[in-house]
Amino acid sequence: MGFDHCVAACLVPLAIWILLSGLDDLWIALVLAFAGRMRLRRPTDAELDRVPERPIAIFVPLWREHRVIGQMLAHNLDGIRYSNYQFFVGVYPNDPATARAVAEVAQRDCRVHLCLCSHDGPTSKGDCLNEIYRSMVESEIRGGGRFEIITTHDAEDLVHPESLRLINFYSRDYAMVQMPVLPLPTGPGELTHGLYCDEFAEFQTKDIPVRQRLGGFLPANGVGTGFERSALERLARERGSIFDPECLTEDYENGYRLHALGYRQAFVPVRFENGQPVATREYFPRSLRQAVRQRSRWVAGIVLQGWQYHGWRGPWRQVYWFWRDRKGLVGNLLSPFANLIFFLVAVEFLWSAVTGRPRRFAGPVPVWALRMCLATYWMSMVQVAIRASASARIYGWRFAALSPVRTLWGNVVNFAATLAALRQFAEARLRRRPLAWRKTEHMYPRPRLGELLVRLRAVPMGEVEDAALCLPKGVRLG
Question: pLDDT at position 317, please?
Answer without folding.
Answer: 86
